[in-house]
Amino acid sequence: MKLIKQAFVLALLAASCLLLGCDDGAKPPSETPKRVNEFETGRFALQKMLGMAHLWAADAQPMQLRSTPTKESDGHDGKSANWRAVFGSRARGKSEPFTWNGLASVAQKVDHGVEDFYNPGNRSTQTWDLNFLKVDTDKALAVAQKHGGKKLLDKEPNTPVAYLLDWNAQSSRLVWHVMYGESPAKLTVLVDASTGLYLRKE
Q1: Could you tell me the pTM of the whole model?
Q2: Which has more confidence, 36 or 162?
Q3: Which residue from 134, 183, 132, 146 is spatially nearest to 162, judged by alpha carbons?
Q4: What is the DSSP secondary structure assignment for residue 86, as one 8-state letter?
Q5: Residue partners of 185: CB distance under 8 A and separation at least 6
Q6: What Rg, from alpha-carbon coordinates, does the chain have?
Q7: CA–CA distance, 134 with 48 (Å, rounded to integer)
C-alpha cells in the first residue's frame, strides 16, 4: 500500500512538471548582440585612432583628418561613419594613415595603411597638437550652416557634407573645412577649429 502511495505521489509530481513546465537549470544559448552602425564627430573619431597611432610611433601627431560620406551617413549632423587620419612622426621621419569605420558590416573598426616619408620641415604637411582642437565637427557645421550651408541644403537636401581638418601654416591655425557636395564641393566653409569663428567660404 505504501509503495502504491509513493508511486501515486511521483505520478502527480510528474504531471505537475508537464503542466507547469519544469526548469532543468539549462539556459538558452545567448544570442550575439546585433551590430549597429556607429557615427562619430571628427574629434571622437580621432581619439579612437590615437591609441593605434601611438603604438606605431610614441610621438605620433595628426597631420590631417577627413571624413567620407556614405549612404548611411551624409554628414548633415556633423558626424560620419568613415574617418581617415594621417599621423606624422618626427622621430621616425615617417607618416602613416589610420582609419576608423563605424559601419556594422566592417569587422575591424580601426585600421592603418602604409608608411610614407615625412618631412617635418614641409609647411604643407605640418603636424599639430591635439590641444588646438577645441571645436568639433557638429559646432563647425552649425557655423557653416549660417554662411550658406543651410540655404544650399534647403535647396538640395541630398547633398552630402564632408569634413577636412588641417593646419594652415600661413595663418598658424587649425582649420575645419566643411564641404557641401563632392568632387568638387559646391560650397566649402572654413571654421577656426580652436575658436569656432567663421573664417571664409570658397
Answers
A1: 0.82
A2: 162
A3: 183
A4: E
A5: 162, 179, 202
A6: 28
A7: 17
Rounded to the nearest 10°, the torsion over CA 141, 145, 149, 150 is 130
pLDDT tier at 28 (50, 70, 90 boundaries)?
low
The secondary structure of residue 40, as a DSSP letter, is B
Name residue 109's amino acid.
K
**φ and ψ at 180, to 5 degrees?**
-95, 115
DSSP letters for 151-186 = HHHHH-TT--EEEEEEEETTTTEEEEEEEESSSS-S
Single out the residue of 69, 42, 72, 74 nearest to residue 140, CA to CA: 42
What pLDDT is recorded for position 133? Answer: 98
**pLDDT tens figures, 64-110:** 999 999 999 999 999 999 999 999 999 999 999 999 999 998 888 99
Q: What is the reported pLDDT for 8?
A: 45
CA-to-CA separations, 35 to 29, 83, 103, 105, in angstroms, rounded: 18, 19, 9, 8
- For residues 116-142, average pLDDT: 93
Q: How far apart are CA 73 and CA 80, in angstroms?
A: 5
